[in-house]
Amino acid sequence: MDLKNLIRTIPDFPKPGIQFKDIESITEHPEAFSHVVERFSEAMEAHDIDKIVALDARGFLFGGALGLRQKLPIVMARKKGKLGGDCVAETYALEYGSAEVELQKTAIKSGEKVMIIDDLLATGGTAAAAAALVNQVGGDVTLFAFVIELDGLNGRAQLGDVDTVALVSF
């Protein structure tokens, strides 16, 4: 399936000069959405994943579907102030600003192997921040998964030597 042709580009969003890659065009097509989940399932086969950490908010879509398919727990890494309970937080840079992501301290147990999933890998800041949180609570990130990778922003360099899969590159 040619996912690249399904992905819409929205110019100048969220600010001038940004070419936003819209994955809603994938979620609007059940066959394409299913294809993405299947490809991520295949990527997981080489890893003994205990939990999936899905990034706020579009990562929740793919993480939820994948967790259901794989019968694995889903942990949400959310924007600051969106999680209750005792949380750890990490600030990171975006390609157009900065943000903070949080994870509940009890969401991951020491030694658990974790997959981090999101819709897009750009500069790698969000995913690297989520990995720092997983490590902080004792987990081990063994796989990153993204629908889209923006090649020119070198996001993979922020992720270290952890296996990384992206289904489409721009």
UniProtKB/TrEMBL annotation:
InterPro entries: Ade_phspho_trans (IPR005764), PRTase-like (IPR029057), PRTase_dom (IPR000836), UPRTase/APRTase (IPR050054). CDD domains: PRTases_typeI. Its main location: cytoplasm. Pfam families: Pribosyltran. Residues 23-140 form the Phosphoribosyltransferase domain. Its EC number is 2.4.2.7. It is found in: Cytoplasm. Pathway: Purine metabolism; AMP biosynthesis via salvage pathway; AMP from adenine: step 1/1. GO terms for cellular component: cytoplasm. It catalyses: AMP + diphosphate = 5-phospho-alpha-D-ribose 1-diphosphate + adenine. GO terms for molecular function: adenine binding; adenine phosphoribosyltransferase activity; AMP binding. One of its GO terms (biological process) is purine ribonucleoside salvage. Keywords: Cytoplasm, Glycosyltransferase, Purine salvage, Transferase. Belongs to the purine/pyrimidine phosphoribosyltransferase family. Homodimer. Catalyzes a salvage reaction resulting in the formation of AMP, that is energically less costly than de novo synthesis. This is Adenine phosphoribosyltransferase. It comes from Arenicella chitinivorans. The lineage of its organism: Bacteria, Pseudomonadati, Pseudomonadota, Gammaproteobacteria, Arenicellales. The gene is apt.
